[in-house]
Amino acid sequence: MENYHHTYEKLIEITPKENVMVNEHLNKHTYTRLGGEADFYVTPGTYEEVQSVVKLANEQKLPFTMLGNGSNLIVKDGGIRGIVLNLKNLASIKINNTKVVAQSGARIIDTSRAALAKSLTGLEFACGIPGSVGGALFMNAGAYGGEIKDVLESTIVVDREGNLLELSADQLDLDYRTSNIPDNGYIVLEATFSMEKGSYDEIKAIMDDLTFKRESKQPLEYPSCGSVFKRPPGYFAGKLIQDSELQGKQIGGAQVSLKHAGFIVNVDDSSAKEYIDLIHFVQNTVKSKFGVNLEREVKIIGEDL
């Protein structure tokens, strides 16, 4: 308990007190509305503060977790020990000619809209992706034929030791829904996207069309982690789940969406355990019926109760 208090005192020396929460319920910060408590939930306001928090975690040998905005994530019911970092206070978006520079905590949707406002083309595919810029780089987010690696030029990150690094897109090993960011323990602080001048009306028409497709096909009326599974080679995950007659399958408050089989929705105050159990049930059923392994796109972190 003494160490606990000491860590808190150190954290509020680094960043204002309102940026440090103790025993914070993470279900308030995830799209699934799942997850137990974080020992410390920290929302720094500058790059230097992020560096100092990382160095403090190292000094005190505290577990350290990057949350992002919680859109492609399941936090287990037992919560997360140590420090959980959220960069929601680093959310500026600046445009210089054809370069869009967005901080990690900015929503990738808002970044695509800022590009539209300047008639810049390249980020239209991201107009319906709910994650943050940092999260989008972390998993090379994509939709409707586009992905982050198509437009990313460079990024500024903090490494495990708290050092600030500038990396080119090529140094991130961006591939289908993956990057080397998690393996290297990088914390993304900002991203520079290289865009092209286009027609405002044409860009807006594409974004309107993609938004309509998303809203008409995806179960946005319920909490969810978005698309649960990666696309298996030669198949569509949603079609395999649908053909396995799993739509509407429910474990506790978690349900395979009736609107889009690739989504699992929290329809009735689901626990993280129920949600994860349903993911495993879907994987096992599809494997037994079609011999196809569904690989999770969503990340699961934290401890069981």
UniProtKB/TrEMBL annotation:
- Which keywords fit this entry according to its UniProt record? Cell cycle, Cell division, Cell shape, Cell wall biogenesis/degradation, Cytoplasm, FAD, Flavoprotein, NADP, Oxidoreductase, Peptidoglycan synthesis
Q: Where does it reside?
A: Cytoplasm
Q: Does the keyword Plastid apply?
A: no
Its needed co-factors are: FAD
Among SUPFAM superfamilies, the record links this protein to: FAD-binding/transporter-associated domain-like (SSF56176), Uridine diphospho-N-Acetylenolpyruvylglucosamine reductase, MurB, C-terminal domain (SSF56194)
One term of GO molecular function = UDP-N-acetylmuramate dehydrogenase activity
Q: What is its EC number?
A: 1.3.1.98
Single Gene Ontology BP annotation = regulation of cell shape
Enumerate the Pfam families for this protein.
FAD_binding_4, MurB_C
Matching InterPro entries: FAD-bd_PCMH, FAD-bd_PCMH-like_sf, FAD-bd_PCMH_sub1, FAD-bd_PCMH_sub2, MurB, MurB_C, MurB_C_sf, Oxid_FAD_bind_N
According to its UniProt record, where is this protein mainly located?
A: cytoplasm
Q: Which Gene3D superfamilies match?
A: 3.30.465.10, UDP-N-acetylenolpyruvoylglucosamine reductase, C-terminal domain, Uridine Diphospho-n-acetylenolpyruvylglucosamine Reductase, domain 2
Domain FAD-binding PCMH-type intervals: 34-198
This protein's GO CC annotations: cytosol
Describe which pathway this protein belongs to, using the record's wording.
Cell wall biogenesis; peptidoglycan biosynthesis
Positions of the catalytic residues: 177, 227, 297
Note whether Metal-binding occurs among the keywords.
no
Q: Which reaction is the catalytic activity of this chain? A: UDP-N-acetyl-alpha-D-muramate + NADP(+) = UDP-N-acetyl-3-O-(1-carboxyvinyl)-alpha-D-glucosamine + NADPH + H(+)
Per the similarity annotation, which family is this? Belongs to the MurB family.
Summary of the function given for this chain in its UniProt record = Cell wall formation.
Which NCBIfam families does UniProt cross-reference here? murB, PRK13905.1
Q: What is this protein called?
A: UDP-N-acetylenolpyruvoylglucosamine reductase
Species of origin reads: Virgibacillus phasianinus
